């Protein structure tokens, strides 16, 4: 098992196509699990593949931010429903395979509650 994982990770390191194939294999393994009524096992397969992808040295070749992927992995892991979790991971895999950039979400612009330059506005 360990030698298989080592070989798979070595294949991933060789090219972006290796990463794509690795993720496609995760889908091939996860779909039957989901369809046979075990979405938690499917989610675990997808999560394992995505965590390996997040640590892949050639990640920049896929045009994504490692922090963005890590954020999305944490968001999916926080879901309570195994089916929703599996689908969140699957959508993430599909985005990677499509070459989409996975960036950190933009923070909402902060709006001041009070402008302290006008003390009359505060009732002072």
3D architecture notes:
Helix 2 (16-35) packs antiparallel against helix 3, helix 3 packs antiparallel against helix 4 and helix 3 (39-54) runs parallel beside helix 5 (82-97). The protein has a domain at 29-102. By secondary structure, it is mostly helical. The relative contact order is 0.13. The protein has helices spanning 2-14, 16-35, 39-54, 66-77, 82-97. Residues 1-7 have low confidence and may be disordered.
Short note summarizing the structure:
Helix content is 62%, strand content 0%.
Give the helix/strand layout.
Elements lengths: L1 H13 L1 H20 L3 H16 L11 H12 L4 H16 L27
Which segments are poorly predicted (pLDDT under 50) over 5 or more consecutive residues? 1-7
Oligomer: single chain
Class by helix and strand content? mainly alpha
Radius of gyration: 20 Å
């Amino acid at each position: 098992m360990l030698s298989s994982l080592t070989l798979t990770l070595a294949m991933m390191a060789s090219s972006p196509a290796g990463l794509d194939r690795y993720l496609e294999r995760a889908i091939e393994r996860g779909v039957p699990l989901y369809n046979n009524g075990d979405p938690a096992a499917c989610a675990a397969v997808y999560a394992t593949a995505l965590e390996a992808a997040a640590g892949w040295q050639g990640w920049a070749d896929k045009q994504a931010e490692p922090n963005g992927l890590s954020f999305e992995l944490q968001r999916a892991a926080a879901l309570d429903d195994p089916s929703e979790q599996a689908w969140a991971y699957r959508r993430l895999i599909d985005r990677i395979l499509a070459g989409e950039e996975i960036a950190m979400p933009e923070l909402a612009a902060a709006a001041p509650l009070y402008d302290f330059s006008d003390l009359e506005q505060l009732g002072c």
